[in-house]
Design a protein that fits this description.
two-stranded antiparallel sheet, single chain, 3-stranded mixed beta sheet, alpha+beta
Length: 168
Amino acid sequence: PYPTVIQRDKSITLDGQQCFGVFETNPERIGISDAAANTLTDFPDPPFKGEKRKEAQFGATLVHELVHRKLAFDANGNYIPDMADKPAVAKWANQFGWQTGGRSSWSCSMKEQCVTTYAGQANPEEDIAESVMMFVYWPDKLKKVSQAKYDFIKNELGLSESNQVKLY
């Protein structure tokens, strides 16, 4: 509905934990932490090494947060506050083994199809964001871990291989 500010932050703390990025709705902004370019995680290794790995992590964090922004609004630009009410998230949760025990309590029965540790520990929206990040940066790993998630992103979310970023 209006432009999203993208801002680099020295650090970001969410729920008492340091994180790489955050999407906020009031005011609407995406914050990317310096840690996203300096911290080595389970993504992406390989094929990225050295400085390319830092660039990939920073860019992947931005992609991840842009997915949250995309999922936050319906086709008319109306904000959808509850994750379970987001159509793509609900369909993803149903297809990939996510169950809710309440608004913020989720568990996944198909963690082997999650592309990062974080994706399997959080909730279906984070799983989507991590999977799209892999679709863009490392599609072969996503296909290896879950061809079904790759297909969902391609068919349900409308991304194509021409949207992918090649850093290697």
